[in-house]
Design a protein that fits this description.
Shape: elongated
Helix content: 25-40%
CATH architecture of the largest domain: Alpha-beta prism
Domain Enolpyruvate transferase: 7-405
Largest sheet: 4 strands, mixed
EC number: 2.5.1.7
CATH superfamily of the largest domain: Enolpyruvate transferase domain
Structural class: alpha/beta
Strand order of the largest sheet: 22-23-1-24
Subcellular location: Cytoplasm
Keywords: Cell cycle, Cell division, Cell shape, Cell wall biogenesis/degradation, Cytoplasm, Peptidoglycan synthesis, Pyruvate, Transferase
Strand content: 15-25%
CATH topology of the largest domain: UDP-n-acetylglucosamine1-carboxyvinyl-transferase, Chain
Radius of gyration: 21 Å
Active site: 117 (proton donor)
Distance between the termini: 6 Å
Length: 417
């Protein structure tokens, strides 16, 4: 099992380019199940989660190849299965995104209840209630969701809490349903409008994406699309925080600054200098930063996927901060590993009180989930002496060649087999 070894203390400087967004690529790949013909998807990040999703689509019968420019070509004309088995779903919750497209196009689906990071309960009951509102019959048997419908029909769907994958799944189901579907309290994350843009390219009729109310008028059939995946806002934020925690100066290219607005505001509160352009962000950090509180919430609030990395930064801030998690109930598992590095953190329920320390010390630590692994790497980049991060298969799920990108910025970091 691979480990990442870091000799910290280097100020990171230089330029880094952001990869395509994992959380956009996966639902857009699922959308290829809605039509026949070759779909062209550009700027797909090469990640473990993407590889897992490719295996799932191939199992279902999709034909997937790459052209000379590295673009993915996905053809759903020979779908021969409507089942997503446990072995392809157990490591990644996003696998449930095939449920809506399969029911919409083929009238049936059998999808294993999904897995993923152990950051708390992420039930798919909202997906199921939404499909039932569109006329699907749902059964739960032996760890599988079995959905069937002769033809989905438009309906009104209300989410008790906004859900990104739930919104995406039901958007894809509704585009082929008869009549009009309205999704209330829909998620507003940037990945939602991007999926809607792709579906419109296919011929879907969607309005309101990016707001809490999405309206979809079903169509008879859809056509193939060509699309370039937008930059990953969480990777962008991770490199912004890397500049902050190492007192660095990093120019982040091929990004969307507007998608990182809440993080930019928080970094400025700490005294870190952040400047923005159309598709770039420069982050310059002083020797010492001020502590500031942060509370996660759905977009456009502070993203839960940046909570662990921001906490690593606060470990070295001047003063005391409170980091509050409101999205997932078990997303503080990185705290025990940061404590091993000399951090001063006290957890009380869904909040962590972080008292800044003068320095962190390198240690052997273990990644518990995707974003926790990023926080430990950030801490290691700033720590004295050597840090060894194990179970880095988590980070390979969401970051493309992260150690190589940090090396180009001057970090002493390597992957050890």
């Amino acid at each position: 099992m691979d480990k990442i070894v870091i000799n910290g203390g280097e100020r990171l400087k230089g330029e880094v380019r952001i990869s395509g967004a994992k959380n956009s690529a996966l639902p857009i790949m699922a959308a290829t199940l809605l039509c026949e013909g070759v779909n062209v998807i550009k700027n797909v990040p090469r990640l473990k989660d993407v590889d897992t999703f490719i295996k799932l689509l191939k199992h279902i019968g999709a034909e997937i190849s790459m052209d000379a420019e590295g673009n993915f070509l996905v053809d759903g004309k020979r779908i021969n299965s409507c089942e997503a088995p446990y072995e392809h779903v157990k490591t990644m919750r996003a696998s449930v995104l095939v449920l809506g497209p399969l029911v919409a196009r083929y009238g049936r689906a059998r999808v294993s209840l999904p897995g993923g990071c152990a950051i708390g309960a992420r039930p798919i009951n909202l997906h199921i209630k939404g499909l039932e509102a569109l006329g699907a019959e749902i059964q739960l048997e032996h760890g599988y969701v079995i959905a069937s419908a002769e033809k989905l029909k438009g309906g009104n769907i209300y989410f008790d809490i906004p859900t990104v994958t739930g919104t995406e799944n039901l958007m894809m189901a509704a585009v082929l349903a008869e009549g009009i579907t309205v999704i209330e309290n829909a998620a507003c994350e940037p990945e939602i409008p991007e999926l809607a843009e792709v579906l419109r390219k296919m011929g879907a009729r969607i309005t309101g994406d990016g707001t809490g109310r999405i309206e979809i008028e079903g169509v008879e059939s859809l056509s193939p699309f060509e699309h370039r995946i937008m930059p990953d806002r969480i990777e962008t934020g991770t490199f912004m925080l890397a500049a902050g925690i190492t007192c660095g100066n990093i120019l982040i290219k091929d990004c969307v600054p507007a998608h990182c607005h809440s993080l930019i505001l928080k970094l400025r509160e700490t005294g870190i200098e952040v400047t923005e352009g159309d598709n770039w962000i420069r982050v310059v950090s002083p020797e010492k930063i001020k502590a500031t509180d942060v509370k996660t919430s759905p977009y456009p609030g502070f993203p839960t996927d940046m909570q662990a990395q921001f906490m690593a930064l606060m470990c070295l801030a001047d003063g005391m901060s409170v980091v509050t998690e409101t999205v997932f109930e078990n997303r503080m598992m990185h705290v025990s590993e940061l404590l091993r590095m000399g951090a001063d953190i006290t957890v009380d329920g869904n909040s962590a009180v972080v008292k800044g320390v003068k320095y962190l010390s390198g240690a052997q630590v273990m990644a518990t989930d995707l974003r926790a692994s990023a926080s430990l790497i950030l801490a290691g980049l700033a720590a004295q002496n050597e840090t060894i991060v194990s179970r880095v298969y988590h980070i390979d799920r969401g970051y493309e060649r992260i150690e190589e990108k940090f090396q180009k910025l001057g970090a002493k970091i390597k992957r050890v087999k």
